[in-house]
Design goal:
The protein contains two helices and six strands. With about 170 residues, the protein is an alpha+beta fold.
């Protein structure tokens, strides 16, 4: 007895290019983990099944907050054994690493999601996470951790016989 066997053949091809390398001086002091349910509904002409499309997405994100240290200036006074730095800048969101899980994709007979729709959903989901992270206590916690970082630098300087002097942040006009 002969049994027909079907074999699945898969071919994958990828081209990966390193576009650029950039030096950065950033201090991540806190990470926040967010999970949001995001629903996108739209319809064309009439709000009834054949003209509706809907997607329900779970957005899971890790948001890193801290300081851009490129704004930090450092001067040393060898004779006075003093290190002068300016105060840390305001904390900011440094990066958002997010994943989307599509739970419910409903398309009507006359509507469907395009690549542009999915790209828009991705962008809106990231904006939502950025907004929620900004409204949370994440930046306040980053600021507190930044002060702890400066205390640690001060301790290292003082244990080596140096003083650490911090200039205050200039007033914003």
């Amino acid at each position: 007895e002969w049994v027909a066997r079907s074999r699945v053949h898969t071919t994958q091809n990828a081209t990966i290019l390193l576009e650029r390398i950039q030096k950065v001086a950033k201090l991540t002091t806190v990470e926040g983990y967010f999970s949001e349910l995001y629903e996108n509904r739209s319809f064309q002409y009439f709000d009834i099944y054949p003209f509706q499309k809907k997607v329900l997405v779970r957005v899971k994100a890790k948001v890193s907050a801290g300081f851009d240290l490129e704004q930090l200036s450092l001067e040393t006074d060898q004779a006075g054994k003093t290190i002068w730095i300016n105060a840390l800048p305001e904390p900011t969101i440094l990066s958002i690493d997010h994943d989307l899980d599509y739970y419910d994709i409903s398309e009507g007979l006359f509507t469907s999601f395009s690549e542009a729709d999915y790209n828009k959903i991705l962008s809106e989901a990231k904006d939502l996470i950025r907004k929620k992270a900004s409204e949370s206590s994440l930046l306040a916690e980053a600021s507190a951790q930044g002060k702890d970082f400066l205390d640690m630098v001060r301790l290292i300087a003082e244990s080596s016989g140096w003083q650490l002097k911090i200039r205050s942040r200039p007033e914003m006009k």
